[in-house]
From TrEMBL:
GO biological process: tRNA modification
Protein name per UniProt: tRNA uridine(34) hydroxylase
PANTHER family, per database record: TRNA URIDINE(34) HYDROXYLASE, UPF0176 PROTEIN YCEA
Coiled-coil residue windows: none
Superkingdom of origin: Bacteria
Amino acid sequence: MQLHNKINREELKQKLAEETFRRKTISFYKYHYLDNPQEFRDSIYRDWFALNCFGRIYVAREGINAQMSVPEHLFESFLKTLDNYQILKEIPIKYAIEDDGKSFYKLTIKVRPKLVADGLDDGAYDVTNVGRHLSGEEFHNHVGKENTVVVDMRNFYESEIGHFEGAVCPQADTFREELEIVTDLLQNEKNKKILLYCTGGIRCEKASAYLKHHGFNDVNQLHGGVLEYARQIKSAKLDSKFIGKNFVFDDRLGESVNGQIISHCHQCGKPCDTHTNCANNSCHLLFIQCEECKAKYDGCCTPECAHEKAGTATAEHRHIFGNSRKYRKSLALVREEQLQQNTLPHQP
Ligand SMILES: [Zn+2]
Ligand SMILES: [Zn+2]
């Protein structure tokens, strides 16, 4: 039996469209040491391929992160396969809310060095010793209380357009940097209640373990991240303590959680929360640009880049890179990171 999909994309999408049964879209993740990730990967591939499951699943020595769709009539059989593996026994499963069952059209299971890149060696800290998981409502009730510190574990371009009230939002553009900065910033707060959050929860699994390893005593994390929080406060009719937009790489590049725009166009300063990459390919700066400036600068970050793109650059227009070193990151790279963290809702 082959352990990879070989059929082309169009054919697969066609097959999905013609299915006469329903699918459930689910997600789950767990940090748990695996001796042989490749063997585990091949084994679950066999199990889930046989049950006609689709999805995008990452396996590493440190655990598993999965988003998948399972045929409804085979769901019980799917649950039974989980009992075959220590790591999957009693794993908490999240069920997608707006579920058309068409999120995936094939089964992809990849072995990666890490679930979330932290730049640290395996065993540098115990990734399975995680903080306490708080539901959206529990987290909501703690935000703003005395002796608590809310920490945004996402990168700065994510927190720039949306974050919890009063949150510490470090100027980091990688998770690795983030861990170092946060540990540093909070070194005198080790006895306070720490409330961590990220997009879908998986970064906080790691961050909470890292902070506990560094002597923080009361580490808590938002289970399911801002995605889950937004759903829960909506159904509980609470006023959001998250202001602005949750940066997610769906078609709209995220959705405003409470309707506010808290960030600004990097060029004219008017309220705007839409990221783009500079259209000059030799620049490719990630930045925030409004529609007017997009038209004015032809999608570029500076007049210099617009000239370079148009092929009209002279010596005076010698390329000057954008105003922030930090923003030198392509949207494609950001998207790849979010894919790995499986925080994209319904990604085909
Ligand atoms: Zn503008
Ligand atoms: Zn540029």
